[in-house]
Amino acid sequence: MITEETGSGTREAAEAAVLGDDEKMQAPIAGKAEGGVSGAARRKLESRRKLMAAARKLFVERGYHETRPQDISREAGVGHGTFYLHFEDKLDCFLAFTEEAANELEVFLQNHLARASSLEDGIREILLAIFEYSDANPGVLAATLTDVSVLSKGDTGRKMPADRWAEGWIAALEHWKADGEAVADLDTRLAGYLIVGAIKQGGAYGFRQKLERDVLIDGMARLFIRALKK
């Protein structure tokens, strides 16, 4: 396994290291650029965008463990010190990647749930949203579901995608339970997490077996509806 090169030293040290590579080559210009954003701020946003795109690519292709900060910097085409101007370490970068992916998926989910008027509709629309996002962003969901609890020495203070998705299911289940559509004694929190796990494992199985998406979604939906519907 390739070990991570962590950032030793302060953010000031990292900033000093950057001077002399890509940031120094683009020295801040006085005044404001078009739109009221300074040239330095614009360059900082651009370097973060490049790093996020590179991190996304490498975390998907190699996984968390086999991706190093210097690999991300190289892929982004920026100096290695620039990485530490934006992220504390590799875990911080990975969490930023998972948050970005979770926000993207949320848009798909909200668009699909707007069409649902019942428990059956809602379950199918949520599954459609997840698989549509996965088709549009191959490998992203699998990468974001890496369990970082074993990687971090303490509480990161940020929700992982699995927790966010489970909470989304919990909210939907509570709604259907209140409407009398879901079974009255349903433990919505437990069910929410079980559903997320089932989708992860079921999706992996479907991929290995080369199942058609519609067949997989229909099979999952029927199982969930039978388990949850009153």
What keywords describe this structure?
230 residues, mainly alpha, Tetracycline Repressor, domain 2, 2 domains, 11 helices, 67% helix, 0% strand, elongated
Give the topology, please:
Blueprint: H1 11-18, H2 22-25, H3 39-62, H4 69-76, H5 80-86, H6 90-113, H7 119-136, H8 140-144, H9 161-178, H10 188-209, H11 213-228
Helix pairs in contact: 1-5, 3-4, 3-6, 4-5, 6-7, 7-11, 9-10, 10-11
Structural overview:
The protein has helices at 11-18, 22-25, 39-62, 69-76, 80-86, 90-113, 119-136, 140-144, 161-178, 188-209, 213-228. By secondary structure, it is mainly α. It folds into two domains: 11-88, Arc Repressor Mutant, subunit A, CATH 1.10.10; 98-228, Orthogonal Bundle (Tetracycline Repressor, domain 2). The longest helix is centred in the first third of the chain and has 24 residues, at 39-62. It is elongated. It starts with 10 loop residues before the first helix and ends with a helix.
Name the CATH superfamily classification of the largest domain.
Tetracycline Repressor, domain 2
Gross morphology = elongated
Let me know the average pLDDT: 84
Largest sheet: none
Structural class of the helix and strand makeup? mainly alpha
The radius of gyration is: 21 Å
Question: How many β-strands, per DSSP?
Answer: 0
CATH architectural type of the largest domain: Orthogonal Bundle
